[in-house]
């Protein structure tokens, strides 16, 4: 007698679908959602408290609808770190980059339009496309998880999508997309439609390479999206942002809810932006730990995809989900993103990573969890 979703008059495209659902399990070592393992430093917690207290005195009023102070500070951060001048007029902010992406799809996608991503990639791009009524096209990626440029260009030419997503460094595979590939895909997308190309740089602070922000120059259909959830260690804050031509910033105003960014969120993000130096020091630590995970996993005998992010994709397994469960039995939660043969682990603290490495060493001894032989040796 229980009423289910499908008994309700929900939209046809939502029938039989499941929501985003990374398991939130209570285990000792959680390395499954690419969070930063370091809590915010106490000085920053104090500063947030001060800023939020001040904001609380004005909570009877709506917040700054245009988030001018915050966008100015975000623009300064981007200018300082990416070697490319970005101004207030180039920046827009929302509740996580997921909301930024939703606003972009509401603006440039929607019913009768399509978006493409090169999969496996960030599953939320497809989910947000569905939620906004945008048709989703699953574009190709090579067996080594790089974007095969010729195949990707063909997919763009054939499908003429309205929005193109390029995630670099990519999630869940970890590898970055070379700037030349991004440029070629931008050109292909302009020739086909022209469409808006969204470069999702959620992990760029962890990358060996530079941000693609300088590519914005002279490319009005290019959007770079960023987040404070990963490098800044502020996933709980829900603050994402984009940089683009001012016309793009004006266009997303057409769909954003008025006062979407609460005064508390703006105050907290502004406090965090006063401490970027400290926060980026944790990033350096995590990059070292990421590189250590790559080295040690390879030494154990696993295959590992090159990583420019704060996580590592490793395999290959006949039954990745069975291995995921075995690792969980050792009190370590990693992620099964549904990429056949592979799992993903987030770089945690040195102690957490040691616990993970101990777990995979033990799991490797169990039947069914042995890594499959490298490609050149297998038939
Ligand atoms: C984690 C992640 C995001 C961040 O989403 P937020 O809503 O900002 O927390 C965006 N893009 C990718 C590829 C991610 O992995």
UniProtKB/TrEMBL annotation:
Pfam family, one: Aminotran_1_2
Stretch list, region Disordered: 1-26
Keywords from the UniProt entry: Amino-acid biosynthesis, Aminotransferase, Histidine biosynthesis, Pyridoxal phosphate, Transferase
CDD domains, per the entry: AAT_like
Catalytic activity: L-histidinol phosphate + 2-oxoglutarate = 3-(imidazol-4-yl)-2-oxopropyl phosphate + L-glutamate
Cofactor(s) named in the record: pyridoxal 5'-phosphate
Protein name: Histidinol-phosphate aminotransferase
Taxonomic source organism: Streptomyces adustus
Phylogenetic classification of the source organism: Bacteria, Bacillati, Actinomycetota, Actinomycetes, Kitasatosporales
Gene encoding the protein: hisC
């Amino acid at each position: 007698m229980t009423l289910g979703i499908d008994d309700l008059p929900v939209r046809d495209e939502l029938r039989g679908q499941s929501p985003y659902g990374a398991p939130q399990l209570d285990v000792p070592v959680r390395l499954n959602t690419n969070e930063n393992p370091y809590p915010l430093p106490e000085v920053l917690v104090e500063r947030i408290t001060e800023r939020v207290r001040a904001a609380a005195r004005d909570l009877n009023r709506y917040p700054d609808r245009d988030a001018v102070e915050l966008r100015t500070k975000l623009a300064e951060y981007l200018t300082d770190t990416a070697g490319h001048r970005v101004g207030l007029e180039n920046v827009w902010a929302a509740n996580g980059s997921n909301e930024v992406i939703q606003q972009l799809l509401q603006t440039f996608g929607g019913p009768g339009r399509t978006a493409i991503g090169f999969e496996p990639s960030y599953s939320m791009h497809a989910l947000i496309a569905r939620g906004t009524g945008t048709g989703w096209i699953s574009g190709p990626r090579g067996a080594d998880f790089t974007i095969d440029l010729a195949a990707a260009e063909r997919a763009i030419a054939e499908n003429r999508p309205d929005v193109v997503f390029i995630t670099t460094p990519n999630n869940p595979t970890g590898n970055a997309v070379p700037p030349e590939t991004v440029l070629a895909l931008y050109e292909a997308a302009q020739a086909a439609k022209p469409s808006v190309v969204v470069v999702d740089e959620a992990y760029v602070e962890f990358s060996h390479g530079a941000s693609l922000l300088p590519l914005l120059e002279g490319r009005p259909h290019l959007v770079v999206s960023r987040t404070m959830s990963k490098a800044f260690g502020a996933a709980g804050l829900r603050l994402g942002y984009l940089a683009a031509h001012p016309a793009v910033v004006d266009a997303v105003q057409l769909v954003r809810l008025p006062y979407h960014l609460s005064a508390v969120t703006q105050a907290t993000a502004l406090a965090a932006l006063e401490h970027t130096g400290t926060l980026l020091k944790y990033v350096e630590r995590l990059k070292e730990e990421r590189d250590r995970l790559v080295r040690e996993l390879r030494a154990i005998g696993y295959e590992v995809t090159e990583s420019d992010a704060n996580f590592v994709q490793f395999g290959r397994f006949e039954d990745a989900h069975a291995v995921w469960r075995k690792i969980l039995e050792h009190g370590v939660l990693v992620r099964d993103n549904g990429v056949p043969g592979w799992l993903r682990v987030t770089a945690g603290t040195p102690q957490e990573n040691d616990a993970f490495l101990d777990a995979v060493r033990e799991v490797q001894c169990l039947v069914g969890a042995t890594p499959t032989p490298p490609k050149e040796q297998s038939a």
